[in-house]
Amino acid sequence: MTQASKTGKARRSWQDIRDEIHRRVLSRRYKPGDKLPRDEDIAEELGCARSTVQRAMQDLNDAGIVERKRKGGTQVRPDPVTRATLDIPITRVEVEARGARYGYQMLASGRETTPAPVAAAFGLAAPEEMLHIEALHLADEAPFILEDRWVSLATCPEIANVDLSVKSANEWLVMHKPYDRMDLRFYAVNASGAMAARLKLREGAALLVIERSTWIGDAPITTVRSVTTPGYQLLTGS
Amino acid sequence: MTQASKTGKARRSWQDIRDEIHRRVLSRRYKPGDKLPRDEDIAEELGCARSTVQRAMQDLNDAGIVERKRKGGTQVRPDPVTRATLDIPITRVEVEARGARYGYQMLASGRETTPAPVAAAFGLAAPEEMLHIEALHLADEAPFILEDRWVSLATCPEIANVDLSVKSANEWLVMHKPYDRMDLRFYAVNASGAMAARLKLREGAALLVIERSTWIGDAPITTVRSVTTPGYQLLTGS
DNA sequence: TAGTGGTCTAGACCACTAA
DNA sequence: TAGTGGTCTAGACCACTAA
How much is the pTM? Predict the structure, then answer.
């Protein structure tokens, strides 16, 4: 019989341990840059197993609260960062979640040599021929997101046989091409004449741009620049 | 002696198990919406302990790949999402990381009643008197971020005694006010006349805005709208 | 109410790396 | 090279919740 069941007091979970340590960091009992006690000592102090402390610490490490090094021990991160989790759904799902009808229009598609910014996004040594697709995502018939995408034909030769005028490259890739690295960039642009025409809005409007590049190993898969429409917001919960 | 050490083959870690299951999802061996085998069966198949599968599944769950329910089992999320982690450092640290000199200027500060958008960001039932601060963060003497902040005096009465013309409210809050909930919003705006004047740029320029609100329990702490300067990008690695 | 996931524990051994 | 974190395992018991 465990001590907890003897006393009738619920055992503390690793989340409880994590919260307790987090409180100590926030209350400055453990200050930024400070070294924390060893997991084993914290376990003894809080009356739990070392593995429970380890699980709690792993979470605090992932959250950017502490920094852990073998032999070096655990220390409170000297430069606090705010860490947030962003969920970026497939555009179709996003539109449907707003209760709108989703539509998709391929504007252009063909093989082209990567221009400098695209080669740079992928970190390519030399330009390469890739599949270049421009497409529009619609919500209730109105332009929603303008997408400019490059897909590596070396990494994804099968995509040459997919009819991208019906289904977006986004959906095909999500379903068929696993990636293990992703880069995201968010920034604002003034709508160029071409963007304004395609999105049916005035030139110069401030638009949020989401750029995403993915790789499998060192092989580039796709890089896409999604230009959103006015009022578009990226939201985070936590 | 374990089987692994007998054969000389490294035992698989929970990350390996996670990757194996992830591969199965990506290769559509487990399709979106499909129910996965029980942890115990996967453990047996892959030759590891159930707790190792549990750890792997916890990670896949956090990453939005699968959805788990007691008794209901584990299923592949029907709507794949791209989940990314964003680190937002303190502005001073961000400026210094770019190798620039950090500067801070308080533009205005005073008690005011929250206007509708601020009350809405906090989910307040009624307007409230709060501390309102406008400030400018500088990089090498040039405007970098324009900050418009409201701090709840009910939740943070101590801040009334802090000299915010020297140190930013951001830094004081990070060090003294733990929060347990945060909302983030990102969007683009055209610079208004007032913004353009303060940031020394042309009216209408497209600017990335970062809005953040924090709470401790149900009590609002602060809400801040940070207007960045042209060229500013939010980046994610993973 | 039976079945599945959630968590804990103790002990073992491994893998880094500061000293 | 000694010390600290990283991970595994087997078994136990708990906590939800679909059926």
Answer: 0.85
